[in-house]
From TrEMBL:
<comment type="similarity">
    <text>Belongs to the 'GDSL' lipolytic enzyme family.</text>
</comment>
<protein>
    <submittedName>
        <fullName>Putative triacylglycerol lipase</fullName>
    </submittedName>
</protein>
<dbReference type="InterPro" id="IPR036514">
    <property type="entry name" value="SGNH_hydro_sf"/>
</dbReference>
<keyword id="KW-0443">Lipid metabolism</keyword>
<dbReference type="InterPro" id="IPR051058">
    <property type="entry name" value="GDSL_Est/Lipase"/>
</dbReference>
<dbReference type="Pfam" id="PF00657">
    <property type="entry name" value="Lipase_GDSL"/>
</dbReference>
<keyword id="KW-0442">Lipid degradation</keyword>
<dbReference type="GO" id="GO:0016788">
    <property type="term" value="F:hydrolase activity, acting on ester bonds"/>
</dbReference>
<dbReference type="InterPro" id="IPR035669">
    <property type="entry name" value="SGNH_plant_lipase-like"/>
</dbReference>
<dbReference type="GO" id="GO:0016042">
    <property type="term" value="P:lipid catabolic process"/>
</dbReference>
<keyword id="KW-0378">Hydrolase</keyword>
<dbReference type="InterPro" id="IPR001087">
    <property type="entry name" value="GDSL"/>
</dbReference>
Length: 375
């Protein structure tokens, strides 16, 4: 009888140890993992919102997504061959699921607690940006959409827990601005009149003033951890090189100068918001220098070209017609910095994401993204 009681006692102790270990593991996982990733911006991070719009800007056609394992290589609406930079960062920070596109039917119920993707191909900071595509979701509407999500999270968690979840366990990632130049200010069809009447300084003033309001609106809905990407070297994308008939090692000066001018103002804006919005941390992702490093030193990173699109048609760099079923496609997708005339390949996105996650202040400041998550 004594032996039996001792055996039962030992089993019970063993079970308690296992339960406690599991609780500890779960608590540690929860602490180290990202609660939610809320993604805003343009086609660089769109995960499929444009699939649900009547728009000329769509990526839900092959061979887009050919290397996206979660869909078995089928297109999802991502403007690349695999994962976007937002997908990769979410995974690396411990997010168990990709943030669902806001307009997708599965962006409902508890799924939104992993985060939501509001980004839209063709979208920009200014409402006029991207009108050439007929429909797209600009930043003003993306913030409106987040306010809908915010109310749903209140209902799921209760107001007090929801506020804590949004402010402490969520990251707000915003990649926007390139279209305001490419598909607004620099677009000959739409912008020639605007450029006569509006100087670059004045146009960038408009961008910064609109962006300040948009970021402050998110702050007022309890967003506290922000990562904001600046505009990359848009004068070096295959589309710009092709239409301007440049050599492989040349870029369009005006486009890059505008990007750098905006980026300097953006840096000042984020410093201002860090000073004036208590409890908020605005992190600047230096996308311009990161992408320029890949373009200039592509061979160092195992690429064979940083000029030619892997998927596209037209001109020396396959840079005129967007990627689609009739496009020529390279066989060595992981050797191309650019997937199509505008967007990086998954291989490039992996390198960019690594620097944002763990890099130093040249590329991500004042904190990297792992540090931001753990704040």
């Amino acid at each position: 009888m004594k032996a039996m009681a001792l055996k039962c006692y030992n089993i019970l102790v063993h079970l308690i140890v296992i339960v406690n270990m599991n609780l500890y593991r779960n608590a540690a996982a929860q602490k180290s993992g990202l609660g939610a990733s809320f993604i805003f911006g343009d086609s660089l991070v769109d995960a499929g919102n444009n699939n649900y719009l009547s728009t000329l800007s769509k990526a839900n056609i092959p061979p887009n997504g050919i290397d996206f394992k979660a869909s078995g290589g089928n297109p999802t609406g991502r403007y690349t061959n695999g994962r976007t930079i937002g997908d990769i960062i979410g995974e690396e920070l411990g997010q168990p699921n990709f943030a669902a596109p806001f307009l997708a039917p599965n962006a409902t119920g508890k799924a939104i607690l992993y985060g939501v993707n509001y980004a839209s191909g063709g979208g920009g900071i200014l409402n006029a940006t991207g009108r050439i595509f007929v429909n797209r979701i600009g930043m003003d509407i993306q913030v409106d959409y987040f306010s809908i999500t915010r109310k749903k999270i209140d209902k799921l968690l209760g107001e007090s827990k929801a506020k804590q979840y949004i402010s402490k366990q969520s990251i707000f990632s915003i990649t926007v601005g390139a279209n305001d130049f490419l598909n607004n200010y620099l677009l000959p069809i739409l912008s020639i009149g605007a450029r006569i009447s509006q100087s670059p300084d004045s146009f960038i003033d408009d961008m910064i003033n609109h962006f300040r309001v948009q970021l402050t609106r998110l702050y007022k809905m309890d967003a506290r951890k922000f990562v904001i990407g600046n505009v990359g070297p848009i004068g070096c994308i295959p589309y710009q090189k092709t239409i301007n008939q440049l050599n492989e090692d040349q870029c369009v000066d005006l486009a890059n100068k505008l990007a750098l001018q905006y980026n300097a103002r953006l840096k000042d804006l984020l410093a201002e918001l860090n000073d004036n919005l208590p409890g908020a941390t605005f992190v600047l992702a230096n996308v311009y220098d990161l992408v320029m490093e890949l373009i200039d030193n592509y061979d160092k990173y195992g690429f064979t070209t940083s000029s030619r699109a892997c998927c596209g048609n037209g001109g020396q760099f396959a840079g005129i017609i967007p990627c689609g079923p009739s496009s020529s496609i390279c066989t060595d997708r992981y050797k191309h910095v650019f997937w199509d005339p505008y967007h990086p390949s998954e291989a490039a996105n992996l390198i960019l994401a690594k620097q944002l996650l763990d890099g130093d202040k040249r590329y991500i400041s004042p904190l990297n993204l792992r540090q931001l998550r753990d704040l």
